[in-house]
Design a protein that fits this description.
alpha+beta; Alpha-Beta Plaits; Calcium-transporting ATPase, cytoplasmic transduction domain A; 7-stranded mixed beta sheet; elongated; ATP binding; cell membrane
Length: 708
């Protein structure tokens, strides 16, 4: 199935997103994801459906689809580009309508119903062009949005005033200012909401903007003379040569051909200390050269770059709905019909059972319509999630889905892999020895070890292969990697060689303290000792979990002796050593049954165990981010950011609960207040607009709040 990713402009609330989501599912599309905050829509085409037909269907709902294609037709030209322009236009006509309400101000001409109609009509037309279109399309699709309430409220006051203007006593029925004020203030509220919601997307926008920079492209003329000229990074292709100087951004993923430089990768990894890069090193688009000048060739552009993968991961995570949002979505789907029912009841009860009369009853009903805020419940979760994910990405923490943010709040124990996670993974050989009667010399011993270990991706094997690289190397007729034990090779004469852990030599020696044992035809030849270094930040990270009563567990395939050394140094609660990948998976599954468990590993050898954890966390190089299967990725082996990831998860969920509480309390209090006539429709419209701003501001606090 073809996966389609579009930008859909015009979605202003969760009900808008639900409308689009419901339409796409009705058309038989699968894996539908709609993120109204970023305007991102993705789905997989089903049989018999075409992209033009789906695009046309979405645009019939009142939204504009940006497919990213060069030959796409332009959207319908609108009267105004944004809510601020609409608000400014409406304000010009609304202010004169409000002048006669000021004490001591009596402008006779403004009391004329036809003058008031002339002032209100432009505001009403602009309001219906926006609110009316959206309301009609949402009702047609069966998911009425908040614009239905605004449209009915403003239209009720307008029609009532218009009918009254035709009667014998028009001055008793003039509520044109109510219509104009509702529309004007809702536009103001929408603009304020747009501004604050945009703030929640700031981190993602920063990553996106970093992809659009200028590059110094190198080209050669017929005489092979080098020329440098500026081009936009979006025009670069794989294989192009570029010159990057001090203070300039890396325009795309590149490999250095010549020169050295200090590269600031903080936009990707969250680490502000520059990293020294030299010839043949990879550099990531969006990072900055702080010192030095380099020539490089482009290795990836567009959607294939590391930065694009990061942006896409964050967008996909925002589109995912955590469990806590499901209740809010269900309420949002029925909220508008519920408010309409309450408004009708308000009109009926006030008119038939109180002495206030029809006019006051109608105004109270209109106030109920405009003060109710379904957007508040819809915005509560996405706003907090967007800020949480954005702050995480800015610090080199990538959440694959929003569900992980919520799950972090329940974590009671965390399982650590040892090599490359708590330790640097940068091994070096400290000693080696041949057993008496091995029948080979040291040179042959090294040759055998190198020839075996060069075929393994294990960090210890890579260390031995790098330090003992020899020529000539041995050739093998058969190679086999035995998980949890090591490498087994067979030469053309049928001799079997093994380089592996103590498990391979357990029947041949009682000495289990060495790193690698070398065997030939089930006879021990000798052993090799390698050393690794505990990460300097590991002690602080483990202490953070101790202080919060989160159990720490070391789960490793390494020897018990070495695992206990690391565990003692870091004060780890429990140690399980010499575990195969299958045993790791079983252990993590067992831990997960006991209590919610997170596991952190390198994301490759530990992939099965990571999948069994409540949350799998991978330590990764930035260049491998797209290949990780874990739910959370710590860029550039950023163990120091592990507490921040848990803290962000916990505090994002706290913010979501605060937002939902505000949304429910606001509507529970505001609607009865309006129904009892304690505030006017105009003031209700202003309060409704500001209610969303409160949610967005509370969510934005996550950008600076101390969470770890």
């Amino acid at each position: 199935m073809e996966k389609v990713k579009w930008k859909v402009n015009g979605m202003s609330c969760t009900n808008c997103a639900l409308t689009v989501h419901k339409y796409l599912e009705q058309e038989g599309l699968s894996n539908v994801k709609v993120n109204f905050m970023g305007g991102d829509v993705s789905f997989e085409l089903g049989n018999g459906t075409t992209k033009p037909a789906i695009q046309k269907g979405i645009e019939k709902l009142g939204y504009h689809v940006d497919t990213g294609e060069a030959n796409q037709a332009p959207p319908r030209k609108k009267l105004f580009r944004n809510h601020l322009q609409r608000f400014a236009f409406c304000l010009v006509f609304t202010l004169p309508l409000l002048l006669h309400m000021l004490p001591g101000v009596h402008i006779h001409i403004l009391m004329n119903p036809w003058v008031q109609l002339a002032l209100t009509l432009p505001v009403y037309i602009v309001g219906m062009d926006f609110f009316g279109r959206s309301a009609f399309n949402s009702v047609r699709r069966g998911i009425p949005n908040m614009n239905v309430l605004v449209t009915i409220g403003a239209s009720a006051a307008f029609v009532y005033s218009l009918v009254g203007s035709l009667g014998p006593n028009p001055e008793q029925y003039l509520f044109y200012e109510t219509t104009a004020t509702i529309i004007t203030l809702v536009f103001l509220g929408n603009w304020l909401e747009d501004r604050t919601v945009a703030t929640t997307q700031a981190a993602l926008q920063q990553l996106t903007v970093s992809q659009k920079i200028m590059a110094n492209m190198i080209a050669f003329d017929d005489q092979f003379q080098e020329h440098v000229f500026p081009v936009e990074s979006i025009h670069l292709k794989v294989g192009d040569l570029v010159l990057i100087k001090t203070g300039e951004y890396v325009p795309a993923d590149c490999k250095i051909l010549s020169g050295e430089a200090s590269i600031n990768e903080s936009i990707i990894t969250g680490e502000s200390i520059p990293v020294d890069k030299k010839m043949n090193d990879l550099i990531i688009g969006g990072s900055m050269v702080e010192q030095g000048s380099i020539k490089a060739y482009v290795t990836a552009v567009g959607e294939d770059t590391v930065m694009s993968h990061i942006v896409q991961l964050v967008k996909e995570a925002q589109a995912e709905k955590p469990p806590v949002q499901q209740l809010a979505d269900k309420i949002s789907a029925i909220f508008v019909p519920l408010v309409l029912s309450i408004a009708v009841l308000t009109l009926a009860i006030n008119y038939f059972f109180t002495p206030v009369g029809f006019t006051a009853s109608l105004l109270r009903s209109i106030a109920v319509l405009v003060i109710a805020c379904p957007c508040a419940m819809g915005l509560a979760t996405p706003a907090a999630v967007a800020v949480g994910l954005g702050r995480a990405a800015r610090n080199g923490i990538l959440f694959k889905n929003a569900k992980s943010l919520e799950l972090f709040k329940d974590i009671r124990q965390i399982v650590f892999d040892k090599t490359g996670t708590l330790t640097t993974g940068a091994f070096h050989i400290t000693s080696f020895a041949l057993v008496p009667g091995a029948g080979i010399d040291e040179a042959t011993f090294k040759q055998i070890a190198f020839s075996i270990e060069k075929y393994s991706n294990h960090p210890i094997a890579k260390c031995i292969a790098a330090e003992w690289k020899t020529r000539p190397e041995l050739r093998w007729a058969k190679t086999l990697e035995i998980k949890g034990m090591g490498m087994q090779m067979t030469d053309k004469e049928g001799n079997t060689y093994i380089a592996g852990s103590y498990k391979a030599a357990v029947a041949l020696t009682d000495d289990a303290l060495h790193s690698v044992y070398l065997l030939k035809n089930n006879q021990l030849l000798g052993w090799i000792d390698v050393a690794d270094t505990i990460r300097p930040e590991a002690k602080t990270v483990l202490s953070w979990f101790k202080q919060r009563n989160i159990k720490t567990i070391l789960l490793s395939g390494d020897s018990m002796h070495k695992c206990r050394e690391v565990a003692a140094a870091l004060d780890i609660d429990e140690v399980l050593a010499e575990q195969t990948p299958e045993q790791k998976m079983e252990r993590v599954a067992l831990y997960n049954q006991q209590a919610p468990t997170a596991m952190i590993g390198d994301g490759i050898n530990d992939a099965p165990a990571l999948a069994k954890a409540t949350i799998g966390i991978s330590m990764s190089d930035a260049s491998q981010v797209a290949m990780q299967s874990a739910q959370v990725v710590l860029m550039n082996h950023g163990l120091r950011y592990l507490p921040l990831s848990l803290g962000l998860g916990k505090h994002t969920f706290i913010t979501i609960k605060q937002n939902l509480a505000w949304a429910f309390v606001y509507n529970i209090i505001a609607i009865p207040v309006a129904a009892f006539g304690l505030l006017s429709p105009s003031f209700g419209a202003l309060v409704m607009g500001l209610s969303d701003v409160v949610l967005a501001i509370n969510s934005v606090r996550l950008r600076w709040k101390r969470v770890a």
